[in-house]
Amino acid sequence: MAQCVQSVQEFVQDSFVPMVAVLCSDEAERVTRKNNLNFAELLRPFCRLTSEGHIRDPNNQVQVVKNLRICVNNVSTSPNTASAALNPAQRRLLNEVVLSCQSPEGAATNVITAGHYDLNFSDQSLKASLPWYSAWRETLLDVSSSNNYTATTPWFETYRENFLHSMPASEHEFLNHYLACLLVVSSSEAVPVEQFLKLSQEQHRIQHSGDYTNPKWFIPNTLKYYVLLHDVNEGNEQRADTVYEDMKQRYGSQGCYLLKVNSRTLSAEDDEQIPDPWSQYLHRNNLHNQDTLDEVAPTENSPAVENNISAAEEDAHHPTDNADEVSTSLDCHPLQLDTVSTEGSLHALSAVNAQPKKSPRDPEGLVGGGGAGSHGACLTLNDHDHIRQFIQEFTFRGLLPHIEKNIRQLNDQLVSRKGLSRSLFTATKKWFGGGKAPEKSISEPKSTCGLLYPPEAPELQIRKMADLCFLVQHYELAYNCYHTAKKDFLSDQAMLYAAGALEMAAVAAFLQAGAPRPYPAHYMDTAIQTYRDVCKNMVLAERCALFSAEILKSQGKYSEAAALLIKMTSEDSDLRSALLLEQAGHCFINMRNPMVRKFAFHMILAGHRFSKAGQRRHALRCYCQAMQVYKERGWSLAEDHINFTIGRQSFTLRQPENAVTAFREILTNDSRQTATQQGAFLREYLYVYKSVIGGNEVSLPELPLPCIHSSATRVYFGHERRLAEGEKQAATHVSLDQEYDQDSAAMWCHLEEQLVASANRGINPANFQPTQCCLNSQTDNLRYPQAVVEEPIIVEVVFRNPLKVPLALSNLSLLWRFTEEGVSPSEETAEESAITNEETLAQGQMTQKDDIVTTEVIPDFPMSPEETKTARLRLLPHRTGQLNIVGVVYNLAEAADGETAPNTEGQQTLELMVVRGRQELKIQGPRLNVTKEDKMEVRHGPDHRLDPVITPPMPLMEVFFLQFPTALLCGEIRKAYVEFCNVSCVALRGLRVVSTHPDFFTFGSQTSSPLTPLSPTSAENCSAYKTKAAPCQPGSVASETLVSPKEFSRPSGVMEIPIEGGTLQPGESIQLPLWLRGPDQEGVHEINFLFYYESTEKGNKISHRVLRHSVFICASRSLSVQASACRSSVPSHHSMEDKGSGGTLVFIDVENINTSEAGVREFHIVQVSSSSRHWRLHKCINPAKDKDCKLTSRERAKLCFRATRCKPPQATSDAVGKYTFTDLNLGNEQIISSCTPCGDFFFRGCPTPDPVASAGISSRSRSHGPPVDAASDITNIVKKCNELDLNLIVIWKAYVVEDNKQLILEGQLHVALQTIGKEASSLTPKEEAQEMVLLKFKSELPPPVALPSAEMSQLIKTNLHYPETYTHPFVKESLCVVPVTLSLSNCSLAQVDVIIELRQKSTSPECAEVHSSFTWVGQTQYKLQLKPQEVLCLTLQACFLQAGVYNLNTPRVFAKPAQQGAMCETSQQTASPALIIINNA
Fold first, then answer.
1. I need a labelling partner for 340 at 20 to 30 A (CA). Which of 597, 686, 968, 1415 fits?
2. Residues 6+ apart with CB under 8 A from 1242
3. Sign of the C-alpha dihedral computed for residues 649, 651, 657 and 659 taken in this order
4. Could you give the CA distance from residue 589 to residue 558 in angstroms, rounded to a whole number?
5. Which conformational region is residue 1433 in: left (phi greater than 0), alpha (psi within -120 to 50 degrees), or beta?
6. Could you report the per-residue pLDDT of 488-503, keeping only the tens digit for each?
7. What CA–CA distance (Å, rounded) separates 641 from 169?
8. What does the alpha-carbon distance between residue 1390 and residue 1274 come to, in Å, rounded to a whole number?
9. What is the rounded average pLDDT of the residues 803-815?
10. Beta bridge partners of 894
């Protein structure tokens, strides 16, 4: 139970005190009325004695009486009989005292620490502080010994006190019967003694005439105490003293008293502050006085009457004068939560609140007598002391001796009747009536509580003596008497008397000093059960339970106390049940191991009963306290019920803000309620919210629905692109429909860096920031984004409907705040200078400051149940400055189910259920993780995606593509057109483009651009290549063109787009041709373009703008080209054009690998071109006929060409590093390969060495001095020997049938022949997975560096010159000697040591047999040194013994670079067989 102000002993003692009656003469009443008090009220604050009293018990032992209080009441003869239940007036009294005692709002909260809970006990506490306690049986704190854990409940103590005082006197006990009577007469009476006589006779008549059942008197010989009241201001003090002396003579000095009051006048000493001790007693007393006023109240329906007492509550004014309305409010209680709420469930409450009535039982009207004046106005502090002294005199000299005398008399009577040898407490029935049965009620059997004893019955005498002893704190004697009486009552089956004796015996046993015996709790349990079940008297049972619970609580037996209190709840009194359930809850929280959930559960039950009793404030408080336990612990259904009740009670109590808060909790949490219940919650919330707003819509409150996923908010800057117009295909750029990809963003950033570096002479500025058109949670939002004036800002907000009912949002728009440029955000005036659209949005206006920012409004935005939906809201800024997007504003309503309202009133209700509110967009930035503090704490950086800076106008470009393909053959050349439009009011310049695939497209070189048709229509049937008529003739020599790579190559990959004048004016557009080449690898390729442009105006915050375009190209297989080269073995005199250096044969294998996917019928190879700085294609060897090469599916053709070295370039700076393009056309048209687009794609597709480095090498090769690099790098020398550096361009046409039309496609494939003897392909080889290599733990010695033999064997080129046939007369001369010339050509750029070995060292017998008839004569071994590229001829002699065919190619040639000493020489490759025919003459 809750902590009480009094101790249990004090509480029980004050519940049973000696009762004293008061009879006043009219004049005496007039004297006391000057102070707005009657005589009983005048004495009430002074009725507690400050000093100890003493009495002697029958054994003549002195008993000390401490802290005694007496109760003084006016004599009331109203027929207030004892009943088994409280009458309606008493019920109303108790309701009002509980209602008037509330928890103070704003007072310091009383915190209870129970387990892992911190529970706040105050009227406004709505939260709990710690997380859910997962293990209930672990680590519960032992808080029972602390004083910090209990919360006081003053309303319960007030109820208990008033309940005990309002109990009527009953026949079975004498504790609340009057022991004495004060007869008060004023000294101003003519004959005061006569007045005393009259009052004495009146008292005797009331007690003994039998006409009055009330009041009840303790003993027949009631103590009469005579009080002479003297008004100091009006009366004669000497006369008063005279009368008092007479009284002492007449009644004895111990039976009378002179009380002097009213020592000051009302007018005098007004400024003196006299304390008013009466105020705390009077309100209760005035409520008691209603007992006589409300006897006419109905008694047959006591619960209804109790529930109807809510009329006295100042905040819930139910009309009580209309019986129909009362019954309606009871039959369908506004706070019943059993049924699903309907739409109009709160309308009745609002109607009640709208017409407050003055309560007929207003406490102000109940103040006794004198109106609004203060109490005791004529009394001084001395008068207070006089009254206090009078009470002390009366008690010590009158009352206590009177009680002591009666105890002795009762004891003497009992002892004398039983005999001296017998105990006082045995065989009483033998002396007081023997075995006679006492009188019985006619209507009730003996075993019920209706049994009545005559007043002189010995059982009642024992009980009377016990009560007297109890009143004067002689608890041991009282216990013995109660115990004896209990046995007698039980033997007579007088259950009501027995229960009373049991109850008081238990209390007396508890109150005994030193506690000689334990508290007999079973006595109390038996008494309660008897009162409730046998006697059907809930009033006495409740009193008994209140005492027992307090006693159990004081002994720490909280569990037993809680069980007792819960047992006392019933349906006959909601107020009693609510208070007892609340106390039971406090018992659970105060146990040694606090039972927090039981506490919360019983607080809920108490709150429900409080609401049924009309105690709405107490109900709200109980629910709020229980909420602390259930909140945020997964008890969602319990939370919903509590929040819903809190919301309703708060609304009824005119606390709409609290109601809105509670209803918000129901809607924002993920509810597990049914859709019907959620709909009811939503309607309640909308109605409460509507009533809160009222007419004040200037500042919009926050709405809980729908939920906004703030971090998913995306912001897009820039206009929405135009879609394709006819054949025009717009650049994709950035849109909100695209998903953000981190890798893609990094790729675009890298491309932009290339563009900015190109525009800034190859250097990126230090303050470079990549352009971000679309901001989301993954982008870098640490800086303020920059938006351009007159360009829209689109904010995508993600809404989620957590409910199972649809929502209807309307008039949805953004809420913003704008600061003009020039006002610093840090200034104090920033808030004042900021312009916002909240006011206009709150009033629902559509014109929302459009001169600053145009705000788009979405008229309807419906949301299905549990749907997540995005809304794109637009703003169009018209001024420069700082824009802050604060939140969203919208109307919220429950979506209609499609059913129309039944009547006009229902339609009006639906219209009212639309509320306007806002939600703020609060985005939490990324967590910081840089400094040590960041890592130790949770810190978040800023996120400025909703705070754009509006900058001055910038150019805005749109790009359109015409005739842009989606599918190409590998290597196919296609011509498209691109259109650039300046759609802004600012000119643009510096147009550039960069791509992830720079080899995919070209705008052409500037020299060739004018030669191409500029419009798509004129170029429809033209070839993409530049051609000229040149019929192919057999054996014709290729045409040559010298081209500088500077005209084509783009070292950084950034292309400047050639536009006339370099600028594009506002509104202008330009079309440019664009050549495309299909990727060399088949498959789908994503190709990204990034266009760059700047404003012609300098000094803008935005330095440049970019435009993205992504395209997907599907590449299909076309041709596969394999090429290889070998040195020609033709003797030099056969090819005089080689100038002695010999020629090279180039073999090209072309295979059609197309799978006819694109409808390709056949390919024609129309031309083979070459490009190199050192070599060129000279003539075509095969095919020799005048026709191109045709390939159908999977066919292969073999082409053979002769390649020769280029003529040495002239010694001019222009010629250095130029490429020689040669064209060998196989058809009637020659394609100029050195022009756009063929040359462009060649330079983009083939890796070209640095022209400066190449020029240096060629210049060194011309000088015959030893090259420095060659001396140091032997490998390089060898490689140079075999270098070819010949790039082949195979140009083809494909005939395609598409939609019954024949199309001609054209394209080119590139093959780079780098080395003689090594095959090259146009297809890039597929990477094979690397094989696993065994892990080696021991480091092996590195192998000796060895040059590859294949490359070393190409150092020397050999040729044998001899006659094909030779005729010799063998008959005449047996030896035939034929001269043979061996020519040696040094192919390298270094000196070479050569060894020529003519002797055969063959070991195989076949070789010996072949060469047996032929031998070399003369010198058989030569050692020579050849200078770089030197040609040397040796004359040899071959000797034949007989005619035949011989292979002269047997000399073995060994060569090594001159600088290489230690390495072994390498045998040079032998050429094809050199056959000679020897004829016999």
1. 597
2. 1048, 1171, 1233, 1287, 1289, 1308, 1310
3. positive
4. 9
5. beta
6. 899 989 999 999 999 9
7. 44
8. 9
9. 91
10. 807
Q: Which helix (H) or strand (E) holds 362?
A: none
User: Would you state the pLDDT for residue 574?
Assistant: 92
Give CA–CA dist 720/717, Å, rounded.
Answer: 9
Query: How far is the C-alpha of 659 from the C-alpha of 897, rounded, in Å?
Result: 27
CA distance 531 to 84: 9
Please give the structure tokens belonging to residue 224.
């009469």
- Are the beta carbons of 1242 and 1310 closer than 8 angstroms? yes
Is the pLDDT at 1319 greater than 80? The verdict is: yes
What single-letter DSSP state applies at residue 710? G
Q: What are phi and psi of 157, to 5 degrees?
A: -65, -40
The candidate with the shortest Cα–Cα distance to 520, out of 481, 479, 492, is 479
Alpha-carbon span 897 to 785, nearest angstrom:
43
Worst-scoring range by mean pLDDT, 666-680, 718-732, 768-782, 1351-1365? 718-732
- DSSP for 346-406? GHHHHHHHHS----TT-GGGGS-SSTTPPTTTT--HHHHHHHHHHHHHIIIIIIHHHHHHH
Q: Which residues contact 477 (CB under 8 A, 6 or more apart)?
A: 57, 58, 466, 469
In this predicted model, what pLDDT tens digit does every residue of 1051-1062 receive, in sequence order? 567 888 888 888
Q: Which two tokens stand for residue 1362?
A: 């001899």
From CA 1063, how far away is CA 1057, in angstroms rounded? 11
Contact 1377, 1438 (CB under 8 A): yes
Cα dist. 1326→996, 1081, 1321 in Å? 21, 10, 12
DSSP code of residue 702: B
Counting every residue written for the chain, the total comes to 1481
Nearest-angstrom CA–CA distance, 1273 and 1074: 45
Pairing of strands 786-788, 949-951: parallel
Look at residues 1138, 1006, 1170, 1129 and name the one whose alpha carbon lies nearest to residue 1073: 1006
Q: Measure Cα distances from 832 to 817, 827, 950 in Å.
A: 11, 10, 19
Please give the torsion angle defined by the CA atoms of residues 1206, 1211, 1217 and 1220, in that order, rounded to the nearest 10 degrees. -30
Q: What is d(CA 229, CA 27) in angstroms, rounded to the nearest whole number? A: 9
Is residue 509 within 8 Å of residue 543, measured between CB atoms? no
What secondary structure does DSSP assign to 1147-1168, as a single string?
EEEEEE---STT-EEEEEEEEE
Query: What is the β-pairing status of strands 62-65 and 53-56?
Result: antiparallel
Contacts of 334 (CB under 8 A, 6+ apart): 345, 348, 349, 648, 652
Distance CA 1317, CA 1282 (A): 8
**At residue 818, what is the residue type?**
F
- Where do we find the tokens 């105020």? 279
Query: Exposed (0-12), middle (13-18) or buried (19+): which is 514, by Cβ within 10 Å?
Result: exposed
| Pairing, β 256-261 against β 223-231 | parallel
Token pair of 410 as six digits:
């009762």
Phi/psi of residue 1307, each to 5°?
-170, 180
* DSSP per-residue codes, 493-527: T-HHHHHHHHHHHHHHHHHSTT-SS---HHHHHHH
Looking at residue 413, its pLDDT comes to 84
922: left (phi over 0), alpha (psi -120 to 50) or beta: beta
Band of the pLDDT at 602, cuts 50, 70, 90?
very high
Return the closest-CA partner of residue 485 out of 419, 538, 424: 424
Predicted pLDDT of residue 116 = 53
- Cα–Cα distance, 270 to 377 (Å, whole number): 9
- Maximum distance among all alpha carbons in the chain? 205
Q: Partners of 1383 in the beta sheet? A: 1359, 1433
The pair of three-digit structure tokens given for residue 257, joined into one six-digit string: 């008293």
Tokens 């009560």 correspond to 467
How far is Cα 1198 from Cα 1290, in angstroms, rounded to an integer? 13
Among the listed residues 62, 98, 86, 75, the one whose alpha carbon sits nearest the alpha carbon of residue 24: 75
Are 440 and 478 in contact, with CB atoms under 8 Å apart?
no
